[in-house]
Amino acid sequence: MDADALRALQAPLKSKYKDDAAAAVLTLRATGAIDESKIACKVETGRAIAEAGLHPLTGGTGAELCSGDMLLEALVACAGVTLKAVSTALGIDLRSGRVTAEGDLDFRGTLGVAKDAPVGFAAIRLRFDLQTGAPEEQIAQLIKLTERYCVVFQTLKQSPASTVSVTTTPA
Predict the structure, then answer these.
(1) DSSP state of 16
(2) How far apart are CA 148 and CA 142, in angstroms?
(3) Which of 38, 39, 145, 166 has its CA 20 to 30 A from that of 59?
(4) φ/ψ (deg, to 5) at 58
(5) What is the DSSP letter of 115?
(6) Would you say 28 and 40 are in contact if contact means Cβ atoms under 8 Å apart?
């Protein structure tokens, strides 16, 4: 897809959203079923069932996906798609690229071993390795806009209001 095709694809959407802001708002949903026989949760991805379980450093076998890995994978996917869309829109020749996300976890936090250890990532690093002949100022603009428009990156950077609720039914 080239820049003109991308603009043609997105122009009616942008126009619609400028005229009707509510049309641009969507609630995304993920659903998972708690596994009765083991410590796991089967997440419906829309394409297949992804089974998440404990990371080996918390007692898991490693047979199931780690939700921390899934978070980093979502970041890589979002950043990669955003980078490609922005490079296409700007007409930047991007021959190939790799996106890598790394996150530092201290499992003492999630296991309740040390109250001073954070539960969750203490740091996340996102890296792009690009094959391109574009000048540095174009690359800087590409990364700036990718960071700005990557939904997952911005969500991690500016944590949204979050709530938890529960409903129960008799066993």
Answers:
(1) H
(2) 10
(3) 166
(4) -120, 15
(5) T
(6) no
DSSP string of 39-102, one letter each residue: SEEEEE-SSSEEEEE--GGGT--SSSBPHHHHHHHHHHHHHHHHHHHHHHHHT--EEEEEEEEE
- CA 96 – CA 98 distance, rounded (Å): 7
Number of neighbours of residue 16 by Cβ within 10 angstroms = 12
The whole-angstrom separation of Cα 86 and Cα 91 is 8
Q: Tell me the C-alpha distance between 2 and 93, whole Å.
A: 10
- The single-letter code of the amino acid at 125 is R
Per DSSP, what are the bridge partners of residue 16? Answer: none
Q: Is 149 helix (H, G, I), strand (E, B) or coil?
A: helix
Structure tokens at 6: 């991308």
Model-level pTM greater than 0.85?
Answer: yes
Please compute the mean of the pLDDT values over residues 9-18 and round it to a whole number: 92
C-alpha torsion 23→154→80→105, nearest 10: -140
pLDDT tens per residue, range 87-97? 999 999 988 89
